[in-house]
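Tokens for Apolipoprotein N-acyltransferase. Go.
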Amino acid sequence: MPLVFVALVPLLVWMQRESTGPSSVAPLEGRGRGLGRVAWITGIVFNAFLFWWLVRLPAKAMTHPWIIFPALLALALYLGSYVALVGWLSGFIRRRVGWSPLVVAPAIWGACEWLKSSGPLGCPWGNVGYALAEHPAWIQGASLVGAPGLSVWIVAVNALIAGAITSRRLPARVALGLCAALLLSLPVAWGHTRIRAYQPGESVRVALVQPNIGSEEKWDTAHQEKSMGTLARLSLEAAQSEPKPDLIVWPETALPFYLRLEGRKLDRLYDLVRTLNVPLLVGYPDATLSLSGGVITHNAAGLILPRGVIAGQYEKIHLVPFGERIPFQGVLPFLGKIDLGQAEWTPGTRPYVFPFGKAPFGVLICFESIFPELSRDYGVDGARFLANITNDEWFGPTAAPRQHADMAILRCVEQELGMARCANTGISMLVDPVGRVAQRGPLFREAVIIGEVGLGSRTTLFRLWGDWLTGLCLGLVLVLMLLGWYRPLRRDA
């Protein structure tokens, strides 16, 4: 929401005043030393409220249900540490280089969000840029700088407002206020212009099947016939619509068995797709033998054609830490023996663009939609739209399904590609290449959503250059850190 442009003002005002301090002997020597501690508390509180839905996860899915509360605390402490890093770096640069926290805050925040979002524990969830996802005109800058760049923009506006509040001179207050207003309004005005100028081109007609099947029923073999019946019934409804869809999409692991290893069930699926006479994109587990004789399992998605073949398969690359795989097993193999109820999938190795006539597409499974890099890979490799399949049933009736869906919207704007998002229990939706949600399904209800998904026809700066603005932020922070490291402590005012 637009309130994000002032949400950080209290923290930044406090950081600025704490780092300025009273005039005294060696005025910069002790300034800013407490910034990290207070920033960490801020980050802990924010992330504890952001992820409170973790405690609503179904206990039956966990080996040790009691661990969920310590896990929420650990997550808040861990993610809050990146806000602490913002405070610590701001204080260090103030003491060593003399730059105000308000001057360096946008670059430091961008660098720290990149660190938080990277690696096996990477978690962009909660990055400030995603607060604008439901306001199309406000997010068009993502086509230039991506969602990470929106965070830098938001923090810069907050910093200017904080500067206007803390400045002691009226002309400076007015100037900073005007700069904040311009920095806020000009990108939004450009966003409105960009949306008005957008001309829909080619499209593909997609039907999303939202079966609303609970996890207890879905993974119970005794209920597989019922689950398949629900999916088949809704798909027949979709296939009989006019005009007929070009593609039907089922959610992540809609088929809760190793599809390619169960010949009878695979043949039944082929028969269904022949009856539908529409290609089907479906999520399912997959298993293959490794060279050492072991079994490799994947969270996969396959494209089933009416002629009775799997035309292509993608294996999920970015697995959910602790939910789908315990991280760092390559370094510490014993971690693989820890049982927290995780699926222990093997990560895929490469993105795969499904050939589909004029509309080749890339698939994002579950929370892969919150990472810009994979969507960019698809755009570079020639995908013309994105399909996101997920099973958000685990979240329950909390804010998490909406948060998850909102983050997917930014992928469309970054690449100027439409998206078909199919969720087991919602939120299923169709999004156009400039981030407008054309249709959105309900939560925890069966639904069939049919509509046009716009095909990308132009590239974007973000697709060409990647996360270039964060690169500049990292470079600036690194230079200032090196200057501060090798420069004696400043003692002048």
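The chain has two domains: 4-198+466-486, 203-456.
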